[in-house]
Write a structure and sequence with these properties.
The chain is 67% helix and 1% strand. The chain has 308 residues and is mostly helical. The chain has one domain: MetI-like (MetI-like fold, Orthogonal Bundle). The chain has a two-stranded antiparallel sheet with strand order 1-2. A hairpin with a 6-residue loop joins strand 1 (96-97) and strand 2. Helix 2 packs across helix 13, helix 3 packs antiparallel against helix 10 and helix 7 packs antiparallel against helix 10 (223-237). The longest helix is centred in the first third of the chain and has 34 residues, at 2-35. This is Lactose transport system permease protein LacF. The chain crosses the membrane at residues 7-29, 71-94, 115-135, 167-187, 226-246, 276-296. Belongs to the binding-protein-dependent transport system permease family. It is found in: Cell membrane.
């Protein structure tokens, strides 16, 4: 019976594992192989050069600048997105109180608010990037943001939002937060809905404030969900390719102030004399950085599971 059980399990896992190996593992191995060559992508010849591409990458100032921008995105976008997601989810689910009792409830119309928050998830990233590019348009007549500032008497605050190297990356970060926060509002709302209301009611009867309730009850019980969300948002922040490509000036400008590694990889492979080998080395570097981030995040968030 035991051998029959193993054959049954292997029979179910064989095809999925084979597909995973062909569609996921194999491209990573091919990428590493290409990174060891000087292949241009346009000829069948692949001249083996060993680790030369990695040595050039270490001394490539543009790569380190782009990687620093990815680090800034990693520090800002997940923290702000998850903070807003937790705040809005808490207000929508626990921010109210039932009339005539000490029980907790969501604010009135919370269901409608969740739909509104989730709406950006219905749009593709391309549409979001183009929409916000028009909002940031520096033209006082056509740019929605500058036009709004002018109409309320704040014309002195008008900017060339995506044309100023000191604020262009911040503007793109704002768009990434706006585009993703709604998903985490819904995700955290589902997690909070599973927390028994009696826990909140007992805390309120003991005189706990909303702030203490959030930090002492809600956040600890959602820690696993927050940890998983942090990894997902970190991976999104390490990418940011479409946002920067569609919104930035001259694709990563001005003066490479918004360039990120995935975009630099794209330009290296398809624009800068088709340096596929160098682009592949950048891909391997990003894979290592992303894996290190994911592993550290999951290990640091590991703890004993709280049952409720």
């Amino acid at each position: 019976m035991r051998h029959g059980k193993y054959r049954f399990i292997i029979g179910f896992l064989a095809i999925p594992l084979a597909l995973y190996g062909v569609l996921v593992i194999s491209p990573f191995l091919q990428d590493f192989q290409i990174s060891l060559t000087s292949w241009s992508g346009l000829t069948p010849e692949k001249n083996f050069i060993g680790l030369d591409n990695y040595q050039k990458l270490i001394h490539n100032d543009l790569f380190w600048k782009a990687l620093w921008h990815n680090v800034l995105l990693l520090l800002f976008v997940p923290v702000v997105t998850l903070a807003f997601g937790l705040f809005f989810a808490f207000m929508l689910n626990v921010g109210g109180r039932r009339r005539g009792s000490a029980g907790v409830a969501g604010v009135r119309g919370s269901g409608l608010y969740k739909v509104i928050f989730f709406f950006p998830q219905v749009l593709s990233i391309t549409i979001i990037a183009i929409l916000w590019q028009q909002i940031y348009n520096p033209d006082p007549e056509n740019g929605m943001l500058n036009s709004l500032l002018s109409s309320v008497g704040l014309g002195s605050l008008q900017q060339s939002w995506l044309g100023d190297s000191s604020i262009a990356l911040i503007c793109i970060m704002v768009v990434m937060v706006w585009a993703n926060v709604g998903f985490y509002v819904v995700l955290f709302s589902a997690g909070m809905a599973s927390i028994p209301g009696e826990i909140y009611e007992a805390a309120l009867l003991d005189g706990a404030s909303r702030v203490k309730t959030f930090f002492r009850i809600t956040l600890p019980l959602l820690r696993d969900t927050v940890a998983t969300a942090w990894v997902y948002m970190g991976i999104i922040a390490m990418d940011a390719f479409i946002y920067v490509q569609l919104m930035s000036v001259n694709v990563g400008g001005p003066d490479e102030s918004t360039d990120v590694v995935p975009l630099l990889l794209y330009k290296t492979a398809f624009r800068d004399n088709s340096q596929y080998g160098m682009a592949a080395a950048m891909g391997v570097a990003m894979l290592i950085v992303t894996l290190v981030f994911a592993v550290l995040s999951m290990r640091l968030s590991r703890r004993e599971r709280i049952e409720f």
